Amino acid sequence: MTDDRSSQTAYRWYTRPVLFVADVNRALGFYVGTLGFEKRWHEGNGAGGVCQVNRGECEIILCEEPARRDRGRLFVELTPDALADLRRELAGRAVPAQETWWGSDAIQIKDPDGNELLFPISQ
Questions:
Q1: Beta-carbon neighbour count of residue 31 at 10 Å?
Q2: Quick one: which of 112, 116, 20, 29 has its CA closest to 63?
């Protein structure tokens, strides 16, 4: 078998993380109302337990499954200007955030279910 990596460039890998939440409407309130995402779709004409939120090229699927206790962690890289804007938004909306270390300095935001968004701080 040969290793022909040139054929791999014809395909685009598209990913959307799934975060498990206890209450999808509470999670929507946080992601849309607090973090400024927009609701892209919501199963069951808005009555279902799965939806997607978007902000820029960041797309997250929220899945209501109260029995799941695991949490996710997303690493979201922003340009320096976008990071500065995010900092201003967080301060203006009084979003609980803290600086942490995860291989580099980062801003950490936790959703109501303990899922984490980490935004690396460029040096």
A1: 26
A2: 20
What is the number of other CB atoms lying within 10 angstroms of the CB of residue 8? 9
Buried b (16+ CB within 10 A) or exposed e, 35-48: bebeeeebeeeeee
What is the pLDDT, as a whole number, of residue 122? 78
pLDDT at 69: 87
pTM of the entire structure? 0.86
* Pairing relationship of beta strands 116-120 and 98-101 according to DSSP bridges: unpaired
Find the DSSP H helices in 1-123: 24-28, 80-92
Q: Are 19 and 111 in contact (CB under 8 A)?
A: yes
Please name each of the domains of the chain with its CATH number.
Answer: 14-120 (3.10.180.10)
* Regions of the chain where pLDDT drops below 70: 1-9, 123
Nearest to 63 by CA among 76, 35, 38, 44: 44
